[in-house]
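Quarterly update from the structural biology core.
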Amino acid sequence: MSRRRYLIAYDIAHPRRLRLTCKVMEGYGDRLQYSVFLCDLSGAELAQWERDIRPVLNLGEDSIVVIDLGRPETVRMQCLGVMRQIPHSGPTVV
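Predicted structure, tokenized:
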């Protein structure tokens, strides 16, 4: 199953929902900034992420942006200022 790299950013209006959103996101990707995650996901994992995140949100107040960056091995990233640890592409063995 092929993976794609997604940049996911969120703006959550309520502190409790913000904490819950962060918990869900930590299970799917690596934090780049406070509300920005980089996630390498298969189609099934992306669908599961959406099933997990929807109950946490108030769609009238909160927003999440999902940007498909393509295959992880083809994404080039550049950082200006303090260097962030950028996740490598491919699977991680724990």
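Helices lie at 15-26, 43-53.
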